[in-house]
Amino acid sequence: MDKILIRGGAALKGTIPISGAKNATLPELAATLLTSEKVYLTNIPHLADVTTMLELLGQQGSDLTIDEKLGVEIDNRGINNFCAPYDLVSTMRASILVMGPMLARYGQAEISMPGGCAIGSRPVNLHIQGLRAMGAEVSLGDGYIRAKAKRLRGAKIFLEPVTVTGTENLLMAATLADGVTILENAAREPEVVDLANMLTSMGAKIQGAGSSTITIEGVDELHGTKHNIIPDRIETATFIIAAAITDGDITLTNTQSEYLTVPIEAFRQAGIDIDLKDDGTMRIRKGSKLKALDIQTSPYPGFPTDIQAQMLVLNSVSKGISTVTETIFENRFMHVSELQRMGADITIQGNTVRVRGVKNLIGAPVMATDLRASASLVLAGLAANGDTLISRVYHLDRGYERIEEKLLALGADIQRLSE
Ligand code: UD1
Questions:
Q1: Is-catalytic flag, 117?
Q2: What pLDDT is recorded for position 419?
């Protein structure tokens, strides 16, 4: 298993591009199942989770052509397998995203039940309830969700709590349903909007994406499209923090700052100087002294849970005492004990942590536990005195494209050790 070794202390300097958003790519690859015409997606990030989704489509009979320009052409004329097996779903929970499209277009889907994961139990009851409301027969047994429907029908569905992939699954299913579907308390994430834009370009009739009520009028069929995936806002935020905590000066290209309004406001309050340009570039420097900031995660447009772990590192090296409250996932503080081993002064009280800024973090051997936790350990390693050896970096590869290459290009002392 690969490890990453970082010798902390180098100020990051230079320019790097932000990759396409993982959380838009996964539902959009699943959405290609809704048509037998070719779909061409560009700005696809090169990530382990994307490879897993491509493998899943391949197993189902998709013909995939990947080109040099980060594009993938998907031809789904040969779909003949409607199962998402345990080995793929257990590596990536987002495999559940094929359930809605499969059921809508082929009348059947068999998906291995996603289990718990490092950040909590993560149920999929809302995906199932929504499809049942649309007339699907759904049964659960021997670890599988089996769903059938002659043709789904429109329904009014209230989602509580707000669920991103739940909204996306039902949105995709509703595009081919008979009648109108209304999703209430829908997720408003930019990735949901990007998916809706792609579906609209395939002929779907969708209104309200980006608000908490999405109305979908089902159509008989969808056609092929070309779609360019939006930039990854979580990767962008991670590099903003990396620049600030290393006293760096970096420029990020291919960004979309409007997807990060709340975090950027928070980062500025914390003392980070962020200069937004019209052409999608962003220049980041540490402005004044970094100040610790109280944060509470919430669904979009609030502060993303996917930046909570990285925020703990920023607060750990900032002046003052802060609290960070996690409201989305019940067990998303696995990184705290590793950060403590690097000298961070953090205490957990229920779903809130209290962080007292320290002068310096200290390099140590640490273990990544989930995707965003791994990113926080990389950040801590960049800012720390001495060497940090991060093991289990396969978590990192799920969501960050070539992170060590990008950091190396910015002058970090970082290397991947393959065993
Ligand atoms: C997505 C993102 C993930 C992000 C998360 C929250 C993708 C591929 N992943 O995950 O990066 O951290 O949103 O922003 O887009 N819930 C239920 N029942 C359900 C579904 C969800 O109770 O059927 C609960 C979850 O346990 C959690 C909350 O809803 O407490 C939000 O989860 P959800 O938005 O569904 O997360 P994902 O879509 O899995």
A1: yes
A2: 76
Cβ(368) – ligand 1 distance below 6 Å? no
Q: Whose alpha carbon is nearest atom 33 of ligand 1?
A: 163
125 lines ligand 1 (CB under 6 A): yes
User: Exposed e or buried b for every residue in 271-302, given b needs 16+ CB within 10 A?
Assistant: bbebeeeeeebbebbbeeebbbbebebbbbbe
Beta strands across the sheet bearing 413-417: 365-367, 387-391, 3-7, 413-417
Give pLDDT tens digits for 8-30. 999 999 999 999 999 999 999 99
Backbone dihedral angles phi then psi of residue 357, each to the nearest 5 degrees: -60, 140
Distance (angstroms) between ligand 1 centre and the Cα of 23 equals: 11
Residue 279: alpha-carbon gap to chain centroid: 24
In DSSP terms, which residues pair with 391 in a beta bridge?
367
SS3 state at 69? coil
Question: Does pTM surpass 0.90?
Answer: yes
Q: Considering the candidates 66, 117, 321, 348, report the single residue annotated as catalytic.
A: 117
Q: How far is the CA of 163 from the centre of ligand 1 (A)?
A: 5
Closest CA to 52 of 84, 18, 81: 84
Nearest to 101 by CA among 212, 202, 215, 191: 202
Q: Are 174 and 181 in contact (CB under 8 A)?
A: yes
Ligand 1 and 286: CB distance under 6 A: no
